[in-house]
C-alpha cells in the first residue's frame, strides 16, 4: 500500500497509521517479525529515514518491540493485572479462562535472611522454603517469581511443590490457610542477564519489581515474594470502587 505523497500529513505519520491498522487487521500478528526496513520501504513507497522514524515511534508507544540481533516484532497485547488483588497467578489465569502454567526453576530449604525473617515475622536462620518459578501467560513468560515460606508454619511444604500447581490451593488444602490481604511495593528496575534469560527479554529492559507479603485472616504472614514483570507485557490497574 503506497502512501499519499501529496497529503499534508507527514509520511512517517501516515506510515505509523498504516502499520497500526495492519497490526489491528492481523496482517502483522502479535509476536510476528516485522518486514525489514528495505521491504517496508518497498511496500509503502517511502524512504528508509521515514521507516526508521515511524518504527521508532511505534516502539516507544508499545506497538512494536526491538530485539537486538533479531529484528523488530509486533508487541503482544499487555496483560492487565490488578495491583491490589489477593489472588495468585493460577487463580488469575483461571479467572481469564486460561489453563494456569508455571515452571519451577528451583526450590530448596535454606536459613532465612534477615530481610525474609523480618517479612515473615520469624527468627533469623529459621528454615524457609525458597521457590523460584516462571509464571506464563499463554506460552510467554509473564513474571519471574521468587517466594519464601516458613517451614515452621508450613512443615514439609517442599513435598507438595509441583509445576503448574497453585501454591495457594496447596496451602488451602494441606494447611487450611488462605490469603485474605497483602502488602505490595512496586518499583521499576532494569533486567540483569539472569532475569533477561528467564523472561526472554533484553538485558537492560525495564521490569516492574513487585515486593509482596501475603497475610492470612489472623494477619500472620503467609509468604514473601519478589515478582519481576517485563514492563512492556503488563499494565497494573487499581480498582478503588466500593460496594
Automatic annotation (TrEMBL):
Keywords: DNA-binding, Transcription, Transcription regulation
Upper lineage: Bacteria, Bacillati, Bacillota, Bacilli, Bacillales
Name of the featured protein: GntR family transcriptional regulator
Membrane-spanning ranges: none
Domain HTH gntR-type intervals: 9-77
UniProt keyword Amino-acid biosynthesis present: no
Alphabetical list of NCBIfam families matching this protein: PRK11402.1 (NF008491)
Presence of the UniProt keyword Transcription in the record: yes
PANTHER family in alphabetical order: MANNOSYL-D-GLYCERATE TRANSPORT/METABOLISM SYSTEM REPRESSOR MNGR-RELATED (PTHR44846), MANNOSYL-D-GLYCERATE TRANSPORT_METABOLISM SYSTEM REPRESSOR MNGR-RELATED (PTHR44846:SF1)
Pfam families: GntR (PF00392), UTRA (PF07702)
Amino acid at each position: 500500500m503506497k502512501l499519499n505523497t501529496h497529503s499534508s500529513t507527514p509520511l512517517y505519520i501516515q506510515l505509523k497509521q498504516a502499520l497500526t491498522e495492519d497490526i489491528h487487521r492481523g496482517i502483522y500478528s502479535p509476536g510476528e517479525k516485522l518486514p525489514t526496513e528495505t521491504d517496508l520501504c518497498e511496500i509503502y513507497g517511502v524512504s528508509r529515514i521515514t521507516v526508521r522514524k515511524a518504527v521508532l515511534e511505534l516502539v516507544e508507544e508499545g506497538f512494536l518491540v526491538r530485539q537486538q540481533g533479531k529484528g523488530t516484532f509486533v508487541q503482544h497485547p499487555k496483560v492487565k493485572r490488578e495491583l491490589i488483588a489477593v489472588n495468585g497467578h493460577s487463580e488469575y489465569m483461571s479467572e481469564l479462562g486460561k489453563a494456569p502454567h508455571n515452571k519451577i526453576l528451583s526450590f530448596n530449604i535454606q536459613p532465612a535472611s534477615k530481610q525474609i525473617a523480618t517479612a515473615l515475622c520469624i527468627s533469623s536462620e529459621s528454615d524457609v522454603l525458597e521457590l523460584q518459578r516462571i509464571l506464563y501467560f499463554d506460552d510467554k513468560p509473564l513474571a519471574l517469581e521468587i517466594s519464601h515460606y516458613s517451614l515452621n508454619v508450613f512443615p514439609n511444604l517442599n513435598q507438595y511443590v509441583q509445576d503448574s500447581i497453585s501454591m495457594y490451593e496447596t496451602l488451602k488444602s494441606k494447611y487450611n490457610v488462605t490469603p485474605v490481604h497483602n502488602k505490595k511495593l512496586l518499583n521499576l528496575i532494569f533486567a540483569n542477564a539472569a532475569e533477561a534469560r528467564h523472561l526472554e527479554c533484553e538485558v537492560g529492559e525495564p521490569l516492574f519489581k513487585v515486593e509482596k507479603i501475603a497475610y492470612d485472616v489472623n494477619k500472620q504472614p503467609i509468604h514473601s515474594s519478589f515478582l519481576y514483570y517485563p514492563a512492556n507485557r503488563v499494565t497494573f490497574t487499581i480498582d478503588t470502587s466500593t460496594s
